[in-house]
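Researcher: For the record, we're logging two predictions in this thread. I'll number them. Prediction 1 follows.
Model: Prediction 1, sequence and structure:
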Amino acid sequence: MASIDAHYSAQDIEARILDALREAGLNPDQRLLPEELAALDHFHTGGYPASLILQDLANIQGSDRVLDIGAGLAGPARMLAASPGCRVDCIELTADYCAGAELLNKLTGLENLIDVHEGSALDMPYSDNSFEVAWMQNVGMNIEDKQGLYTEVCRVLKPGGRFAFQEMTAGETDTSYFPLPWATDPADNLLVSADEMHSLLDECGFVAEYYEDVSDTQLNPPTSTATESTAQSSSQNSPQKKAQAPLSLSTYVDDLALKAENATRSLQEGQVRFVRGVFRAK
C-alpha cells in the first residue's frame, strides 16, 4: 500500500493544477467546462476518448447513480455529472488526488453532484444495492485481491446494475519495462490475464454483456481524436481565452514521458493487453 501511495503521490497538487490552468490560458476564477480539462484529468489508457466510449457502451443515463472506483482527479465523474447529469460518488485511495478532484469539482461548478471519498476499493463505505453503475478505469492493476474487489463492486450494485471498466491485463510474456503509469516496479504490477479476469467476474456474481480486447485500437488510434474535436469546440464556445499551452498529465505525474513510452512498448510487444467490459450484477 505504501508503495502505491508513493507512486501516485503529487505534493502541492492544487497549486500545480492552478498554475497549469493559468499557463493554458484558462481562468480558475471563472467556471470551467469539464471538456476543457480533459487532457489533465483523465489519467487512464486512451484518455478522454476512452471515457466517452465506455459511457456509450454502458448506456449511462442521467437517472443513474454512478460509483467511480479509483477516481483519480475525477475527470470521468465530471464528464458524467455534466452530461447526462448523473450523481456520482468517487472513491480514491490517494489523498493528493482527492484534493485535486475536490478543487476541479468546484472550478466546474459540479461539486453538488459529485462526492469524493478517500478510501479503498476493497472496503467501500456504501450500502448494499446503492448504485446503478460502477465505473472503473485502469485501477485493478494495483489491486492483488481481485476477487475481493469484484465481490465488493457486486455488493454495492443494484441487481442488474452495470459494471463498466477498462483494464490492462497480463500478456503472453512478463512485463519488463518500468516504470509504468501504474507501477514503479514489478511488485506493484498486479496483472492477471483477460481470461482469468472474466472467470473471476463470473465467480463474483457478474454476467458479461460486453468484453473485448481492444489493444489493437489503442496501438492504432484514429488520426483525429475526440479530445481534439472537443477542445476545439470548447475553445470556440467558452468565454475563456484560447489555450496558450496544452494541459497535460505531467502536471502531477512524474516521469510521464518515460512511463508512457514503457507502456507503449509493453503493449506493442504483447507483455500487456488492454480490455474493456460491461458486466451486469446478477
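Researcher: Logged. Prediction 2.
Model: Prediction 2, sequence and structure:
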Amino acid sequence: MTTFLILGGARSGKSSRAQSLAEAAGPRRVFVATAEALDEEMTSRISRHRADRGEGWRTVEAPLDLVSVIGDASLSDEFVLIDCLTLWLSNLFHHDRDVEAETAALCDALRSPPMQIALVSNEIGLGLVPETPLGRAFRDAQGRLNQRVAAVCDRVEFVAAGLPLKLKG
C-alpha cells in the first residue's frame, strides 16, 4: 500500500493536498484527527477542518495512538488520512511520552500498513529559532520526526502556496 507524507508550513495547502489524494483514491476515506479541543480556538479550528472536508469522511480520534489505527485491519479498504503529525508530537510532549520510542513505533507501522495512508506534517524548521528551550526541543523533534517518516514513506511532497513539490516517489 502507498504511503504519502505531505509537508508544508501553516496554511500552505498541505491538508487540502492530502484530502485530494484521498478523494482521488475512492469513496472509502477515514480522517484520523490528532487534535484535541482543549480551548475555544482549537474547537473552532477543528470545526473548520471538518467543514472543509465535507461529506464522505469517517473520523477517528487518535491524539496519541496512531500505531493502533495504522494496524487496524478493519481499515484495509480505506484511504486513511492522518492530520497532523505536528499535533501528535505536541500531544506526546504534553503527556510526557517517549518521543523516540513513539516515533520508532510509528515508522515501524508505516513500513507495511494494510491500507493507503497520507500523513500531514508541518515543516517548522524554516523560520526563526524559538526563544525557549522547550520550543527549540520541539522544533528539533519535529525535524527528526519528519525525516524518519519521510524515510519510510513511498511518496513525499512539500506544499507551498497550495502547490505540491514532489520530493520523493
